[in-house]
Design a protein that fits this description.
3Fe4S_ferredoxin; Alpha-Beta Plaits; 4 strands; binds iron/sulfur cluster; transport; iron ion binding; alpha+beta
Length: about 60
Amino acid sequence: MKVSIDPTLCYGSAECVHRAPSVFEFVDEYGVVRPGRENSGDDPQVREAAERCPSQAISLTE
Ligand code: SF4
């Protein structure tokens, strides 16, 4: 699955970066998917990050 972050929803809590630092990073005070890691949606840590994102900014799609 693919993972993405909606920049209009993210408010930079950084929880995703702490949960899955190999997939998410913090850029200009917002969470983003690291380049080349867009297909990491099946990673359990990424799934958990999506479920727990306080602004529901993380999407998992086929
Ligand atoms: S957990 Fe959600 S709100 Fe926080 S940085 Fe990540 S995407 Fe943004």
